[in-house]
Design goal:
It is a single chain. With 337 residues, the protein is an alpha/beta fold. Helices cover 33% and strands 25% of the residues. The strands form three sheets. A five-stranded parallel sheet has the order 3-2-1-4-5. A five-stranded antiparallel sheet has the order 12-11-10-13-14. Strand 10 and strand 11 form a beta hairpin.
């Protein structure tokens, strides 16, 4: 059996973890990155593609004995139409991709799970506080912007349309901007062990909003710098232990709700992207239904993964361990779609 993934995002830890669990590994990568991936001993095969249609052909060449591990770049790079042509088994529930790519459906799922979320404004005219305007898909924060009133919101949306980042207002979501500490809670749901595991926490490092924090206020106002939210890195975090029961309750509710709305439900890694307020409330503003790049921090395991496994366990290795256990029990069909 060969574990494969697209060369981007969290490919290195996925393939490193797969090798640790005894699998053959393959990266499917843009030809420009081929030399980069040649640096790593744990990658057995490199399949480079000339264009995105060729990428699908390369993925499908592994359909007989391969499993593709999805990450944030899969749908964002290939697009939904190309992903629908993939014949190789995909780890996890590929039906979640459509929900993850739509901000409105994301929030609908979280609300049905009983998870506390920021207020959503259906109309620009309803804006009465600071909001963040967000785009669909795994864009790493690109194009997101803040607005303190409806006039700023209209101006920002017009700029997005003029720059052809979006076609119209139906491609954005207007969300209350919750003040607090960002914490991205990483989880793994195991069908084989029937449990949700808290796997780590990270904070996203975003430009230029994190750069603005280092400037004196006078320079911000003089230059009229507007915050943007393009993710360029991740910072490890550990939460107060009293926050963990709520986070785990949210995760279990999320898993149960996905089973009802998107059968067969959540499989493997996911992330509840949250703000923790000064009232100790966890407010979830997004979810990711697959491995997130913040898990790259924990190649040797996080403070939480050690509590379950008592050995170095990255999220990439945890995925491979689940596939290994499923294969041994003849239950691969339960963890792939």
């Amino acid at each position: 059996m060969i574990i494969s993934t697209i060369g981007s995002h969290s490919a290195l830890q996925i393939l490193h973890g797969a090798k640790k669990e005894g699998f053959k590994t393959t990266v499917i990568t843009d030809k420009k990155r081929e030399n980069f991936y040649k640096n790593f001993y744990f990658i057995d095969f490199i399949l480079s593609y000339e264009d995105l249609d060729d990428a699908v052909i390369k993925i499908n060449s592994l359909k007989d004995d391969g499993i593709l591990i999805p990450h944030g770049s899969l749908v964002e790079y290939l697009g939904k139409e190309r992903v629908s042509k993939i014949e190789t088994k995909i780890f996890g529930n590929k039906n979640i991709f459509e929900w993850e790519a739509n901000q409105k459906k994301k929030m609908e799922l979280l609300k049905k799970a009983g998870i506390k979320t920021p207020e959503i404004f259906e109309s620009i005219e309803d804006i009465d506080r600071l909001v963040i305007i967000k785009l669909n898909g795994a864009k790493g924060g690109k194009g997101y912007f803040l607005a303190k009133n409806k006039e700023e919101a209209k101006e920002g949306i017009t700029k997005l349309i003029q720059s052809k980042i979006i076609q119209g207002e139906d491609e954005i979501i207007i969300q209350e901007y919750v003040i607090g500490v960002p914490m991205y809670f990483q989880f793994f749901y195991s069908y084989i062990l029937n449990r949700v595991e808290i796997f780590g926490i990270d904070i996203r490092y975003e430009t230029n909003i994190d750069g603005i924090r280092r400037l004196p206020q006078q320079y911000i106002s003089e230059r009229e710098i507007k915050p943007t939210f393009v993710v360029v890195g991740n910072i490890p975090a550990v939460a107060r232990e009293s926050l963990l029961p709520v986070a785990l309750d949210y995760a279990n509710s999320f898993v149960n709700t996905t089973k009802q709305l998107i059968p067969p439900g959540m499989i493997g890694p996911f992330c509840l992207e949250s703000i923790v307020t000064d009232d100790m409330d966890i407010v979830v503003f997004e979810f990711s239904g697959r491995i997130v790049a913040g898990t790259n921090l924990y190649i040797n395991g996080s403070p939480y993964s050690w509590l379950y496994w008592d050995e170095p366990m990255s999220m990439g290795r945890r995925i491979a361990r689940e596939i290994k256990m499923a294969n041994e029990e003849d239950k691969l069909n339960l963890v792939t779609t």
